[in-house]
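User: If you would, consider this record:
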Amino acid sequence: MSKSDQLRAQILELTRAYYAENWPGETFEPGKTFVPYAGRIFDEEELVNLVDSSLDFWLTTGRFAKQFEQEFARYLGRRYALLCNSGSSANLLAVSALTSERLKERQLLPGDEVITVAAGFPTTVNPIIQNNLTPVFVDVELTTMNIDVNYLEEALSPRTRALIVAHTLGNPFDLGAVCAFAKKHSLFLIEDNCDALGSLYEGQLTGTFGDLATSSFYPAHHITMGEGGCVVTSDAALKIIVESFRDWGRDCYCDPGKDNTCGKRFGWQLGSLPAGYDHKYIYSHVGYNLKLTDMQAAVGVAQLKKIGAFAAARRANWSLLKESLTKYEDDLILPCATASSDPSWFGFVITVRDNAKFKRADLVQHLESKKIATRHIFGGNLVRQPAYQNISMRQVGSLENSDRVMNNSFVIGVYPGIDQQKIEYMVDCFDQFFTRVKVKQG
């Protein structure tokens, strides 16, 4: 070993020791220890990878990014995985790719329509607007929080060209109905899989059904890189287009730090450029720089090995909450897994019934006072958000369930940092609340 190799090994061994000293584990004190709705779970492997990457001082996409892309594609059984700097950017890349002239007659043009849900996350919808396309909002089911497929045919118009739909809170949407609808009408399907890594539909991983699928590696999600996202596909043409939009819009597909992969770097003639113009500086799309750093990818490589354990913990926590809170279904609508699915849950969603003896705010404030974190369902009914008041859009029906989500629904955590002791404490806090409600009513 060289002297630098020896020093690197010492640094990494010290990093393991530092992890053990700095993160010795948490002692839970009911009512005093905060119970987050989500959070990062890591051990010394993430920290070692992060430091190892930093010692390379390769500050853009590098060896860890390539490793992650290969392993993530293999995990999902897809041909290509393309890392980017966030799940929101992944959605932007996926939608933007459908506007490429390279798709010829399938290219989405300004004014074309994309079906999505109103009770969703803004950056599932924003790329539609940013690409001068028209979002068509449909309603959701209250028990699954997913797209109500009964509205699909009504949402269709001569200008409908695609769907972008999320697996809400890890619960797969009805992929059988949505995929059949997309195939029947020759529509592109983008799966927003940001909340659902590890979820199954009819035994198949979500993120593997659409023409394109996206993931997020924000700390709240199933695995994390801090920031980070990914687009996956098995379509070679879409892969090249997504890569172009991600990498400044360039036509060249060389890896960072590489030249002349095509073997004719100075042999191209595209657009009205002079023949022989350097292919590294030919731009075929109006793109961005949405790459991530290799240090982020290094964390992801370690996280990827933990998906199975993380998903198992999420399923177990969700099941414990569902079993314990069923007794309150007179006042609460509790979540249900979509038929034929096995979700890797992102959170446990609760909807206070319209005729309940209390309001959402009452229950949420009680839980928060007990240091149990809650979150609303993204933007509620996005049609009512100030950002969307003056956009070109269509909505199908009254979106009454999206309004119920906006007014009555909230989420508590099931992430792997929550153990059985914390679940029991959370349930006890619900019991306290309903005892108090019963006393008031009595």
The chain has a mean pLDDT of 96. The chain has two domains: 51-304, 307-441.
